[in-house]
Model the fold of this input.
Amino acid sequence: MFADAVIVGAGPAGLAAAQRLQSQGLKPLLLEKADQVGSAWRRHYDRLHLHTPRMRSNLPGLSMPRAYGRYPSRAQFVQYLENYVDRFKIAPSFSTPVSAIRRDGRHWAVETPSQRVATPIVVMATGWADYPHLPRWPGMDLYQGQILHSSAYRNAAPYKGGRALVVGFGNSGAEIALDLAENGVDVTLSQRSPIRILPRDLFGVPILEFALAQRFLPARVADAINAPILRYAVGSLEKLGFKTARKGAMQMIEEDRRIPVLDVGAVAKIRAGDIKVRGGVNAFTRSGVAFERGGEEGFDVVVLATGYKPDLRALLPDARDVLDGEGRPLVSDRPTAEAGLYFVGALASPTGQLREIRLGATRVADLARKFLEDERGFAPG
Done:
């Protein structure tokens, strides 16, 4: 089988890429291992809302309804993705996992359980939510409570009246801890490494707008400008029980691909004592956890909000100089070291992931069209 282009993944990045490639006259084949679009979004915890405002989070060609409010919910965003597919007549091939993408002369060979697709263009839109990071500690096999990754957490109902430990204070950890605290669970947070916290809104304005206004500044300069304002808005992290990261938020994203915590209420709960903060985990016991700074506590459930570590090396065995040593893309939304291979929405951005997906999909579609014109004089049929 031959296709003008193959897109891997039918989440926001894959759908945006499909729409933009179609607009360029291509007929892309969109492969999705799940049986629905936006499968990762369907699995996220119930209380999740976008961290970026609706008007900055649209995919190409279709705005979200005003009724969604400033920060659409997870369920609303899933509905938006379904509407997007219908609006642009995108037809993903569902239940079609990709096992490998290999070089085949000047083309790529995309291998699935049922077919082998030849194509000059491959767009990787796999995201990172399918690669949960599950660290190990001594004693985990002896622990008699429940351990789950944050990707498996839905809501606080199963844990009401119990004691929960959330390991990791990124955005998922912060919101899951908040959700538990608001629903009758005794919550403790464990955070070992230094962090940065930003308010989702600053002086009534989405924090994203400040990042957009400063996007042309060097990260260090933007961080220096923002530091006194954020100290006023967030306060001392040390008084909350955390260590402050040496790098500012912009530098952290640019250099380490780490997104700061966008606070939607967890900090207030910590200040009120409704969420307790401890240091790193040293080991598990039969009934709970022993902490690095000393002391043991019992917990009924431990939620590992320890993030994701996508590794695409097995999927792209023939690709050279496009992945780092851990299998993560080196670049996104622009040409890679391999002709005809592109990534969309693969890198963290201070100016909003969905906004960057919209811009990146448009850029990649333009590049793909030009690549085909140069290769074989492509013209839309």
Notes: Residues 5 and 83 are 23 Å apart (CA to CA). DSSP finds ten helices and 19 strands in the chain.
